[in-house]
Amino acid sequence: MAAINVENLHWKYYASKDYALKGISLTVNKGEFVAITGPSGAGKTTLILSLTGIIPQRIPGKIRGEVKVLGRSTLTTDVTEVMRKVGVVFEDPEVQFVMGSVEDEVSLALEPLNLPSEELRRRVNQALRIAGLDESFLSRNPLQLSGGEKQRVAIASAVARQPEILILDEPTSDLDPMGKEEVIQAVENLRRETDSTIILVEQDPEIIQRFAERVVVLNNGRLVFDGEPEELYRNINHIESFSIRPPELYELSLRAGLGEPSLDRLVEMARSGMLNHEICKLPGSRGAPGGAKLQAINVTHTYSGGVRALEDVNAVFRAGELVALMGPNGSGKTTLAKILAGLLAPTSGKVLVDGVDVRALGRLELASKVGYVYQNPQHQLFCQTVFDEVAFGLRLRGAKTEEIREVVERTLRTFKLEGLEDEHPFFLSKGEKRRLALASIYALNPDILIVDEPTTGQDRAFSERLFQLLRELSLQGKGIVIITHSVELAAKYADRVVVLKKGRIIADGPPTEVLTNASVTEEAKLKTPLLSQLCKISREHP
Amino acid sequence: MPTILGELTGEEARNSTYMGLNPVVKILIPLFFSLDVLLVRNILSAASLVVLVFAVLVIAGVPMRVLRNYIILISSLSSFIVLSFVLFTNVPGKVLLECNLLTVKAEKGSLVWKVSITDEALYRAAVFILRILAMIFTATLFVATVSDRDIVQGLRDLHFPLGASVAVSLFFRGISLFLEDFRIIREAMMARGVDFEKTSLSRRFMLYANALIPLISLMVSRSYEVSLALESKGISPTTRTRRRGGAPLRKRDLSALALGVAQFLVFLRL
Question: Which range scores top for mean pLDDT: A279-283, B117-121, B260-264?
Fold first, then answer.
């Protein structure tokens, strides 16, 4: 029997020119596990909102077609009624929390059901167990949990209502590898212990392949694929046209010239030295990196509440080098990056830029040497037009109008933003905002560019493009420091990986060495990318 | 669970007995004091209220350094009140000082801007200043002793609808998010070379005005996401639920509540 039936659904947001969904038809049967994937802006979240009735009942716009959830049309059934049978977990767990303790948070979702107290308590405990959280979490503040724990509380809130349909909207995209694994465990428990229909919106092909019986691909508001994950990922050339990526095994097998994805064959090829050397080569080539540009010497930082974020950190960053700064959430990556950029003063120790202590440099001078790009571009865009945004720092430095125009135009071309000069940054797409935030710092021509988690919540194709761009900048001589959770991208693009754990550097070296070091990956809860494993084997068997 | 002030500044009340009171009591006591502010009419009652609220602040263990942060605000407001009573109003009473600031001669006579300080003007200014002081102390007491959770729980025990209780709690959480966003945006401006210490006041004003763009955009997107999350939990402003029994009022809660009501009745009669 169909749990969800979408028939020729078209949806246009009130202020939009184009339809976000263009004729989607989809049937999901009871008990099925269906993954929805596709690039950013493809219409995945819009489709999810349509399945809950929030579209069209709470969001203004134009609808054609119909969605039926458990046989009831979302056009005529009130959202609160639909939600009695449907649970949703959104991408950002924090915005879903309104209560001060895990127990209250999970109970809140049950309040509209008017259950007796004993039943309510039983359901809360059961939901927490499925999400992999024990009773010690009941009294804890959800906002003070780790990323993975927060998302598991959100899953427990949804599961407690015993929904017939559970929708998970990119539940792992904001998480570090450890948090991701915790959520994956929770999804595994869900599969085992409930017979709910599960719809998972996900970018990560490994997760899709591991759980989904069926995958639906959306691209530009259209359904472009509906079938088994295996079938989708085997056709690599086809899926690249949808801007999605296959699992690493499929991609590497193709690049190695294998007809079928096979881990054994790849390892065998690496051992016998037959692995195509292009696979292990970093994109772009140049000589050795330049001299030390930025140095952290015995840096320790303790926040006012007494939390020690960094402990005796020593690190060197060179011109022309792309360094990936990795580690679990709360390991001190952002604190170190802000101290390197002079935005935060270390409690002890010092930071040198070109051998000069940052404390001796003025704000303007320092910003011209070390640029810092924030994780959320919305924090960084405060001018009225794209042109003004890029010109802001140049004007601050008293540059002449002609020079400003020339630099802005060149920068916008570099970041593929030409033609958008007069647009308000507020109205740009997510990817454009991200590129504009980078461009506004790049225009100041800093020697070192520090970029904080630029790929969080972005699709793989965009993340690849962004890393390629940063790689190109490093080849032009810029020092690039990227905070990232993506081991695959770090393995593919970084010259060096620096791993932090509890405020200390636990590894610093080439990706192939660091990411294949079992003790490091175990301690920092990092996944070893297949690429690094193969390249290490290949190097050991020349 | 941190209080509202705790989330904003890391400071909160330390007295475990006061903090352990039922959320309803912790909400009602500041509410009574707020109503008292409307009732006080003379200097004696206003001064008594200030002393009373200050005493409760001390009993609750609110760190005094929190109040020190308000000294500039209190002194500017006090000066503003005194100046407005002296320069822009002519309160009848015993004249203590009088002088003409400006005289403009016109066809139908002359217009005189006269400064007239009377005992009554100073008296009214003092009452106003004490009222504002009482309001600031009351607000401090509320934010230093009440958490998000207390608000939802307390308002629900007072039979407010679930949606409304959650909305009030989110409003207070929104303040700390707003301030955090503002701090990051200010830092992002510094990352591009803005030195706020060396920037003129007018330029600083323009920069802060610019910061409103991302602040509003973040506020709108957050509100949208929160409302989606609440809808997905089946909670809308009209959702009716059967309230499970809240925490019962204990002896000390009832005593605190009785004291609150008693002082309110006293101010009502003063």
Answer: B260-264
Chain B residues within 8 A of A102 when measuring between CB atoms: none
Measured in degrees and rounded to the nearest 5, phi and psi for residue A176 equal -80, 170
Confidence of residue A542 (pLDDT cuts 50, 70, 90): low
A362, amino acid identity: G
Residue A303 has pLDDT above 60, yes or no: yes
Domain contains B2 = no
Instruction: Say how many CB pairs under 8 Å bridge A and B.
Output: 145
| pLDDT at residue A285 tops 60 | no
- If asked whether residues B110 and B184 sit together in one domain, one would say no
Specify the CATH superfamily of domain A2-246: P-loop containing nucleotide triphosphate hydrolases (3.40.50.300)
Interchain contact B233–A (C-beta under 8 A): yes
- The CATH code belonging to domain A292-509 is 3.40.50.300
Nearest-CA residue of chain B relative to A162? B233
- B243 and B12 in contact (C-beta within 8 Å)? no
Nearest CA-CA distance, residue A380 and chain B, Å? 6
The alpha carbon dihedral of A276, A277, A279, A285 has a sign of: negative
Tens-place pLDDT, residues B101-142:
788 887 777 887 888 888 888 888 899 899 999 999 999 999
Residue B206 forms contact with A (CB below 8 Å):
no
Chain A residues with CB inside 8 Å of B171's CB?
A: none
Distances from the Cα of B7 to the Cαs of A107, A144, B147, B150, in angstroms?
Answer: 23, 12, 9, 14
Render pLDDT for A334-357 as a digit per residue (tens, 0 to 9). Answer: 999 999 999 999 999 999 999 999
Least confident of A67-81, A243-257, A267-281, A412-426: A267-281
Give the whole-number percent of chain A exceeding pLDDT 90: 42
pLDDT at res. B234: 77
Q: Which domain holds residue B30?
A: 12-146+245-270
Q: What is the share, in percent, of chain B residues with pLDDT greater than 70?
A: 96
Q: Do B234 and A161 touch (CB under 8 A)?
A: yes
Q: Which residue of B187, B222, B232 is in closest CB contact with A83?
A: B232
Helix axes A386-396, A430-442, angle to 10 degrees: 20
Backbone angles phi, psi at B249, to 5 degrees: -80, 125
CB contact under 8 A, B170 and A84: no
Burial class (CB in 10 A: 0-12, 13-18, 19+), A44: buried
The separation between CA B104 and the C-alpha centre of its own chain, rounded to angstroms, equals: 42
For residue B204, the chain A residues in CB contact (below 8 A) are none
**CA pair distance A410, A352, nearest whole angstrom:** 30
Q: B35-73: b or e for each residue (b if 16 or more CB lie within 10 Å)?
A: ebbeebeeeebbbbbbebbbebbeebbbeeebbeeeeee
List Cα–Cα distances, A139 to A104, A487, B7, B234, in angstroms.
Answer: 8, 34, 18, 23
Domain identity same for B118 and B24: yes
Q: Are strands A2-13 and A21-29 parallel, antiparallel or unpaired?
A: antiparallel
CB contact under 8 A, B184 and A379: yes
Kindly determine whether residue A426 and residue B148, on different chains, have CB atoms separated by under 8 Å. no
pTM metric for this prediction: 0.79
Structure tokens at A9: 């659904």
Distance CA A220, CA A24 (A): 11
Strand A308-318: give its sheet, edge to edge: A308-318, A292-302, A348-353, A356-357
ipTM entry:
0.79
CA-wise closest residue to A301 among A372, A353, A352, A350: A350
B39 reaches A (C-beta below 8 A): no
Contacts of A436 in chain B (CB under 8 A): none
A120, B244: Cβ pair inside 8 Å?
yes
